[in-house]
Specification:
35% strand, eight-stranded mixed sheet
């Protein structure tokens, strides 16, 4: 709910069973919810329940693990986002590179303001947002938790591993190396690095 605190609303007359009144409704144009594929899809159902009249667009971006550069591989967004409030969904905010690129991508299409919603963030990623997001963009970030740091592979520590792999049940199908630096949870052990 914190992410929608500044949602644009307009007064609208409604008729209750007892008396007429002035209520609120979401202003036009409709807000746009944009999950960053693929892990952001896990957050989409909750956002569309919260904002059932919002439109949904998709942005496919991934981090090249060797260079840490951001690669855009899919775009299902309107060309013109002028005047729209956009909500970017991505569970993990690690280096911040994907979020910076996605924010600028939406702003270049005219988004009025952009709110990023993340579950876990690393301090390094939050610092990058402060440094690299164009200050002319009305940008906010809402996170549930800030973990300790990024490791040498730019993974959040302690983190939760690859959010997309976990969401789609691939964690048991992938080959993981036994690693003494693995993060231990009472019911689960996740290695700090995935072997390709």
């Amino acid at each position: 709910y914190e992410a929608t605190r500044n949602l644009d609303l307009v007064d609208t007359p409604i008729e209750t069973p007892v008396a007429p009144m002035i209520g609120k409704k979401i202003a036009a144009p409709k807000p746009m919810v944009v999950p960053v594929l693929r892990a952001g899809l896990g957050m989409l159902d909750g956002m569309t329940r919260l904002l059932p009249t919002a439109e949904v667009g998709f942005l496919g971006m991934r981090r090249d693990e060797a260079t840490l550069d951001i690669i855009t591989y899919a775009n299902r967004l309107p060309e013109d986002l002028t005047g729209r409030q956009c909500f970017l969904l991505d569970p993990m905010l690690a280096t911040g590179g994907t979020l910076v690129a996605a924010t600028h991508y939406l702003a270049e299409r005219g988004a009025k303001d952009i709110t990023a919603i993340n579950i876990i963030a690393a301090p390094e990623g939050l610092e990058r947002l402060k440094k690299d997001i164009d200050p002319s963009i009305d940008f906010k970030v809402v996170v549930c938790a800030v973990d300790d740091h990024l490791n040498e592979h730019a993974y959040i520590v302690p983190g939760l591993g690859d959010a997309g792999d976990r969401l789609y049940g691939l964690i048991d199908q992938l080959s993981y190396r036994s690693d003494p630096a693995a993060v231990s949870y009472p019911h689960l052990t996740l290695p700090a690095k995935r072997l390709v």
